[in-house]
């Protein structure tokens, strides 16, 4: 009786009269349906109106003209790069890194916080409800960068995974970053473990989780890779890194390790169901089979891959093999818009330039990449990524009756192939964080001023050397 009383006392929000793409296993959709939120969970989803006898309904939303989808899940980003957008615009990856590392190496705690606010705010306005940030720049004396990023995500109300990155291969050891921007092996491992213990929440409805995330083969020692994997598994958290992004990386791995990136990752313990890698552009059939065999996930970043001329990832082949694939914005120094909903469209279009042409992806597969696929990659598919009873109340209402979309009969095609759709409402954990395209949790204008000021301060600091 007590449990029933508690359930009836739960505050409910009812959303009605909208098209719904649940992105569940069967791809269930409703031309006009309802969603009931009870606290921070989805209580019911179905066709037509909500039941009339629901208790404790505190809000009813008439969502006529809208499409409801799961919130978008961003599986790879570098928030700090919000402060260095629009630079090195005609470079490939290695040249771009060489050009920007000296500036990035001057970042400090206020800069990291402002950049995280800017990155998260832009994504949240565009329908992202869960985001991952791979932060691997930890200059000496820069302050508590991890804490600043976590604080920004908490204040905005976005579900968040901090991939605590690290680098221990500086210029003097043949790496790309300046020596003062890398950590020692022991310091990197100790700081990563401390970050996990301070910020990681393993609970079902956790708003913050932490992953162990050495940066990439060309900025990290083999020992940091190996011990990082051991640390993650001892602490029970996920692992993340960059993999197979460019042909130069593949050449680097063969020259330094005598094997390609995937074989190198496997030799260091970096393939498994608890691992996801960003990019994975240059993979052969054997590489894809290894990812499928081990359940290793992929964060596909189509706009960044194009911006840095890295190539076209074999997403259709990865999916056909059963590899978990989600979408990533990547850092905004290589994807200046910083918005994930544009990646739905770009993933579809860019992959159709590849070998599979028009059969590569369709609109619904693209939406799945940006929702359920991303939740899979982050290890949260049981909790979010689809609209199903019992899952967390992370969802978006996209307005589809304006000039931009009203003549497209299929709302999912309109969302993916059309112009960026306005976000009327975005809910995270049952809390509304966006209304009519504006953030409810922070002052957007104040964030814009802060990011501008910190970007200018970073530029001045870097110019002084």
UniProtKB/TrEMBL annotation:
<protein>
    <submittedName>
        <fullName>8-oxoguanine deaminase</fullName>
    </submittedName>
</protein>
<dbReference type="InterPro" id="IPR050287">
    <property type="entry name" value="MTA/SAH_deaminase"/>
</dbReference>
<dbReference type="InterPro" id="IPR032466">
    <property type="entry name" value="Metal_Hydrolase"/>
</dbReference>
<dbReference type="Pfam" id="PF01979">
    <property type="entry name" value="Amidohydro_1"/>
</dbReference>
<feature type="domain" description="Amidohydrolase-related">
    <location>
        <begin position="68"/>
        <end position="431"/>
    </location>
</feature>
<dbReference type="InterPro" id="IPR011059">
    <property type="entry name" value="Metal-dep_hydrolase_composite"/>
</dbReference>
<keyword id="KW-0378">Hydrolase</keyword>
<dbReference type="InterPro" id="IPR006680">
    <property type="entry name" value="Amidohydro-rel"/>
</dbReference>
